[in-house]
Amino acid sequence: MIILSIETSCDETALAILDVNGTAKPKFTVLAHKVASQIELHKQYGGVFPMMAKREHSRNILPLFKETLREAKCFAQVKSKTLKAESEIKKILTREPELLEQFLKEIPNIKIPKLNRIVVTVGPGLEPTLWVGINFARALSTAWNIPLVPVNHMEGHVLSVLKGNTKSFALNTTIFPAVSLLVSGGHTELVLAKKVGSYKIIGKTLDDAAGEAFDKVARMMGLTYPGGPQISALAEISRNKTGTNAELSRKNTPSRFLVPSASVPRNSAIHLPRPMMHTKNFDFSFSGLKTASLYLIQKIGTLNDKTKMEIAREFEDAVVDVLIAKTIRAAKTYKVKTIIVGGGVAANKELRKRLTAESKKNNFKIHFPTKELSTDNAVMIGIAGFFGKVKKNTLENFKAKGNMEL
Ligand code: KG4
Ligand code: ZN
Fold this sequence. Notes:
Blueprint: E1 2-7, E2 12-21, E3 27-37, H1 39-43, H2 50-71, H3 86-92, H4 97-106, E4 117-123, H5 127-144, E5 148-152, H6 153-159, E6 168-170, E7 178-183, E8 188-195, E9 198-204, H7 210-220, H8 227-239, H9 245-250, H10 287-300, H11 305-333, E10 338-342, H12 349-361, E11 365-367, H13 371-374, H14 379-387
Parallel strand pairs: 1-4, 4-5, 7-10, 10-11
Antiparallel strand pairs: 1-2, 2-3, 3-6, 7-8, 8-9
This protein binds 5'-O-[(R)-(carboxyoxy)(hydroxy)phosphoryl]adenosine and zinc ion.
């Protein structure tokens, strides 16, 4: 089965094509994997503006689709054909006029590729941006008569760990049942994943998501969006472990932070709380940590590079301490053997290192997605879509659901 997957829930336009062989023991091969990130645009404003993100998605999705077909070697041009159900397509793309114009111009010239289904993220995420992916998927499904499958973005993050470093991978069901820690810019959740398709949220953030807290605290320190990788790079220098200048410059750390590898001792005057770390439930709260960081920054006044690194280290430690404590406790409580991590914050080195060590200590197997599949992508949406159900291509079935739950 050849699957085209589409993801536009936030600031990444992502498309992928997967070839899946077999049903009982499916084997997946990634034929194409494309991501057009809007980070450079949103950097200037310190965060994602939904309407601006929507415009970018609708501008970029069709050119990216063509590149995706090319990468999967299923792109061919044909002499312009008449488009099937043109008036229906005009209706579907009425709110994306730029995309509609491109669609009417380009799609009739593309040879219909052998796609067995189109899967698309319908939530959770930013509704204006979700609509672009959904409407594009619906228009394409209408024009080419290809079945459609709606996908929950968070299920994608849970299943993102199934792909290892190779292009082809088999479904490893032995990882279930698992407790999955999903940590991104929009979500912080602990999910009990009994098997593919069976999920129960056992805890979630009551306010800010972990990634959101990283981004906001980074902004308070004058760092650019997204703040997670930058805070992490600064914290690493402060801990003086493996951070090399080359590594840090690859992460776009401002050059003034690239200090020689002198050891910087922990500053005991810089302390932040670990919110809800010891509460009995599996919920999180990061808004208090964000406020405490603001007070700390205000108290210090002018931040020099050294204090920035120390705050970054303490902030990262605080987030990681809470995430680890709750995840390990959830895995013990629900008596699972495996811990799965997903979402942008899963790229965080300190979280990876310490959660791996803690899991080993407690005899849990741990699975992280590859770095590439930690942040938003369409490969994970394609994997989830393989297990999903085809739904009739109607507005009722394909609505953006900003707060969709697993
Ligand atoms: O999953 P994702 O790409 O998008 C959402 O669905 O939100 O996650 C993006 C989030 C951002 O908040 C970003 O700051 C955070 O993931 N992030 C990190 C790291 N890399 C990305 N946070 C901490 N450390 C990192 N290395
Ligand atoms: Zn995500």
